[in-house]
Amino acid sequence: MLESLHVRNYVLIDKLDLDFSDGFTVITGETGSGKSIILGALSLLLGQKADKEAVRNGSDMAEVSGTFSINSHDVISWCSDHEIDVEDNSLILRRVIRTNGRSTYSVNGTALTRAEGEELGMLLVDVSSQHAHQSLMKSDVLRKVLDEASSSLDELDSYRTSYSELVAAENKLKETKEMMERSSEEADYMKYCLSELDNADLKVGEEEELKEKLNLQASSEYIAENLSSAQDELKSASSSLSEALSYMRKAEKKDPSLLEYSERLESQSIETEDILESIRDYLSSMSFSETDIEMMNQRISVIQRMKRRFGGSVEAAIEQRESFREKLEMISDSSDVISLLEKKIDKLSKDVEVKAAKLTSLRKKGAEVFSKRIEEKLHRLGMEAAVFTIAVTPLSVPGPYGKDKIEYLISANRGEKTSLIQETSSGGELSRLMLAMKTSMEGSGSVDTMLFDEVDAGIGGKVATCVAKELKDLSQTKQVITITHLSQIASEADRHYKVYKTEENGRTVSHIKLLENEDRVREIARILSGDESEISLEHARKMLGE
């Protein structure tokens, strides 16, 4: 429920603070006084687009804020999804418009986008205006109204879940078949490439090892020549060490303290022999045949060819090899995948058909009750001869919202055939049809606040009295706020606000005030006859039950 509205520097408003209560509230005022401005300010809180031209001349920004008390599970859930803290079941919405065109929107201090604000606004306030009347022309809106009135939303959610799964499975099947068709055309090429890569048996680092061996072969003559010379020198050294050790052993026999030197010399002699043996083995291993060299060059050529064809590196070629293998396996398995998908689609199709039939049944039952209720309301709203029906006809294939075509048909005058409301209804008839639908759905919707603007368009007299009665009845369960030009509607309200203009310091300013007692009598009289004559004042008092 809307509890308060605060407006600063918006169009003709310098400052406005307005408190609301439950029940039935009306706002009246002369044409051009600023009633539409107040509606515009509230619309900003409900996420409508902002216009920088709405900032009052001489101000840098306009600000609108409002407080809502909430009990709706849908609103609380929405706030939770958007990480908005809700304390004491209260929401404070704030909208700021700046002259540079920038606009900000927040709820309980949490910044939101305008689109998010519009989502929340639809959960907080149900607006019936000239723009909203036009929404009756949209088939999606009409379908949603029927689903809400016929309590089929849960069944619709279940249907949409199955339908989404069906569409996803059908898309997957189509993609799989297309992929299989493309891949089959490429299969022979992939098999050939995979065979080449498997035969190449690439290993990371192999090319570098082969190049090192070839470089070694290129320097083998130089290395062998120097190693041979080293070998000769070591042989001579080894012989000299052996003779030196022999002399040390003889001296050691006479002086045991020389044992340490003998052992060190022996160790050196052994190490020299070991080095000599290692050089001898290395020289023998350096022998490369021309065949070995040719094979190494051929292997390097194979590796380089694979690199050029499959990604520029051995790693990339190995990755490509595994990719070919996976794709070929996928092609091999595609038949099984397609078979499983076809079975899944068949099962889901049957499930969708069953749920679509249940949804259709609920809609038809709901349409019969709902259309009868609307027709009765239309009769009470001055359209005594109106015939109203909701047609639910089958479609050949299921869609996102079921397998039904939903049409709202009306005959406003006796003897005329029923036609689509989009084709036949006038502005006044649409206003009454909108009111009939809203009041016929009493208790079905989750929105606590209902705002009516131009609900009195094109009506008067007895019809206006009937409209007033319907709004009064609706206010027993909803907060109803109505902008009106009719005394019949204004006189039924629990609270009555008047919008008026004054001139202050050479500027026009809009104000609003709560009317009570004699002030309200005078306003009703003004609406009745345009003046405050004794006759009109007396008539106003009677309307107010005084």
Walk me through the structure.
The protein is α/β, with parallel strands linked by helices. The chain is built from 17 helices and 15 strands. The chain has a 6-stranded antiparallel β-sheet, covered by helices on one side. A 6-stranded mixed β-sheet has the order 8-12-13-3-14-15. A hairpin with a 2-residue loop joins strand 9 and strand 10 (402-411). The chain is elongated, with a radius of gyration of 46 Å. The two termini are 30 Å apart.
Q: Roughly how many Å apart are the termini?
A: 30 Å
Structural class: alpha/beta
Mean pLDDT: 87
User: How many DSSP helices?
Assistant: 17
- Are there runs of 5+ residues with pLDDT below 50, and where? none
Strands, count: 15
Task: Tell me the overall shape.
Answer: elongated
| DSSP helix fraction | 55-70%
Question: How many whole angstroms does the radius of gyration measure?
Answer: 46 Å
Beta percentage is 15-25%
Biggest beta sheet attributes: 6 strands, antiparallel
Which strand order do you get reading across the main beta sheet? 2-1-4-5-6-7
